[in-house]
Amino acid sequence: MKLHPVLKRWEGVLALLLVAEILLFGALNPVFLQPSMLLYATSDFIHVGITALALTLVIITGGIDLSVGSVMGLSAITLGILWVGGVDIWLAAVAALAVGTLGGVFNAVAIHLSKVNPLVITLGTGFLYGGAALVLSGLAGATGYEGISNFDPAFVNLANLEVVGLPLPFALFLALTVGFMALLHRTRFGRYVYLIGQNPRAAAYAGTPVFRTLVVAYALTGLLAALSGLILASYFGSARSDFGSTALMPAITAVVLGGTSIYGGSGTILGTALAALLVGYLQTGLQLVGVSSHVSSALSGGLLVIVVALRSLSEMGRVWLQHRRVLRNVAAE
Amino acid sequence: MIIRFLQRHREASVALIIVVLFAILGLVDRSYLSFDTVLLVYGNSLILFVLAIGATMVMATHGLDVSVGSIMGLAAVVAGLLMNAGWGIPLSIGVALLVGLLCGLFNGVLVSWLKVSAIVATLGTLGLYRGLVHLLSGGSWIEGLPEDFKALTKAGSLGLSPVAWLVLVLLVVAHFGLRYTAFGRSMFAVGDNREGARLIGIRVNEVQIVAFGLNGLLAALAGVIFASQIGFIPNTAGTGMEMRAIASSVLGGVSLLGGTGTVLGAALGAYFMTSIDSILVLLRLEAYWNDIIAGAILLVVLITDGKIREAVDRLLRYQKYRKFIDPQAAGPQADAAKAARPLKTALETSEARK
């Protein structure tokens, strides 16, 4: 059984799937193939992709961050509160990013101090940050569904700005993908991330700065989640505390579909980026063909189950084949 | 002493927090401090109780199910549609529970037989089942449920509704069933040491699948209770409940790494999560304070618990190895200690391997 070299790498399979998906939807509805459609459709889901990039780092270290959705809401609300309070919008944006980063640092410190499973800690901090966003928006007198709006037009226009022909959020996503690829695959920090995920004890014995690496990974996740919140605020022209509540699960889906092991130790940024586009375009394409957005989310859930089950089955099959080969060799002797 | 007691009985620490919460309530207004308040909170936490039982079982086998919210919604929609189509109430509920059981078994098969990690598998089915909800309901709310169905959660004998009695029975059965039956223990064995459990003859995969299946069944029951309590079924029924259920169980001492935890603890955790909601209402605080308070208390409990556990572990290990570290302290045992030294290194390496 010879596999084509492209198929040997998971990213290759994902890229082929992505092309096939775009061509399929293009055949069903030619509007889908227009470049402007393909580019601007990304604005609906690119915040998930941006968050997923940094979440990949955390998951590779063997951790997870369930608070990213809440951080998105918190950063958007922070921006809104400061804007309402008369702070310059750019200063407010920087403050919102800082809040997200601090949230990430707090996650890492809490995980390190308590030695409790990151899943549990970030579940708790997720409630905390989400609650903080609710309290802030409540104190500002913004009702949950309207949120805070009337931002500076310059800020609202950001999401529609074009950079070398690409919408700004998408351009940002591409730049961050390249940046994170360099960070994870080309720096010492990146190697530490993998080592910690493979074997935290060996990493500690080898003198790896485990705590520092984890703080940076979680802080980056908080930072990018906050950035996603700002992108959403700019895109919608308003800030709501529940912005990220639906973004958590798709972000984890993108990371896992991208080939990162949920147990840590392996995964790539390119895989996550491709998977985020794959899932995002699946939703957009289905909606364009006339499937309701809720059913399309069911289909992306189904896609995740099928892909992961197939990967697991093929792994089991590979092991079974290997065993059989060994047994046959032994029998032949 | 107290720390040791709290360590051994994780439930006690949650019970303590609940008492403190009620004490604060009592300080503000004495008239609230009554059995009625306790019952009120109990009535509000029925759904979370049922979900927490299921979460405890799944987490005991070192699994995790984040799809329960969607199963809840799916079961509620199935029951609602069937009832409005003229099927009897018991039959509709029965079918809804069956749907929940099947959803749970599907999760279990993915996790146990196909070896997909639990969080990933149930993350996928979370979206899948939610999509089925929308597909079945056609995107609209289901209203006009029969009055007899809504009466199931109306207060009856001794101030408790029929469903509240059922949940009480379920809690007792689940608590003792998990602690004192062979099947209950086998779930904990699977979660604690899967390979070891297999070697002593437990069918590990099947036990885990059944745990997921029962969890699905209980999630469906929670969905039915939800529908009966609010009297209509929105498409978003149950969203976000999975995180609350997991948080309740974890707060009550169920470990995500499997093998430990009690239903009593999880139930107290669920009671606490709901009492925050109810008590804030009584204290006339705005409802938006809920999550931040719940999150803060959850974190404080988890971090202190982690710290205590670490300290106790270190103390126990120190006492175990004291004679090897400090031969004088052990006195006459020193010779034995010297002989046992290779054993100690062996133990340490085996621990390092973990």
Structure description:
The complex is a heterodimer of chains A (333) and B (354). Chain A has 333 residues and is mainly alpha-helical. Chain A is built from 15 helices and 4 strands. In chain A, 75% of the residues lie in helices and 2% in strands. Chain A starts with a helix and ends with a helix. Chain B has 354 residues and is mainly alpha-helical. At the A-B interface, α6, α7, α13 and α15 of A face α7, α13 and α15 of B. Chain A: This is Autoinducer 2 import system permease protein LsrD. Chain A: The complex is composed of two ATP-binding proteins (LsrA), two transmembrane proteins (LsrC and LsrD) and a solute-binding protein (LsrB). Chain A: Part of the ABC transporter complex LsrABCD involved in autoinducer 2 (AI-2) import. Probably responsible for the translocation of the substrate across the membrane.
Throw out a few tags for this protein.
heterodimer, A: about 325 residues, mainly alpha, ABC transporter involved in vitamin B12 uptake, BtuC, two-stranded antiparallel ribbon, 15 helices, about 0% strand, globular, B: about 350 residues, 17 helices, about 75% helix, disordered C terminus, transport (chain A)
The gist of it:
The complex is a heterodimer of chains A (333) and B (354). Chain A has helices spanning 5-8, 10-28, 35-41, 46-60, 68-84, 89-114, 118-139, 153-157, 168-186, 188-198, 200-205, 210-236, 248-257, 269-289, 293-332; strands spanning 148-149, 162-163, 166-167, 238-239.
Number of helices of chain B: 17
**Domains of chain B (count):** 2
The Rg value of chain A, from CA coordinates, equals: 21 Å
Shape of chain B: globular
Largest interface between protein chains, with number of residues from each side: A-B, 52 and 50 residues
What is the typical, i.e. mean, pLDDT of chain A?
87
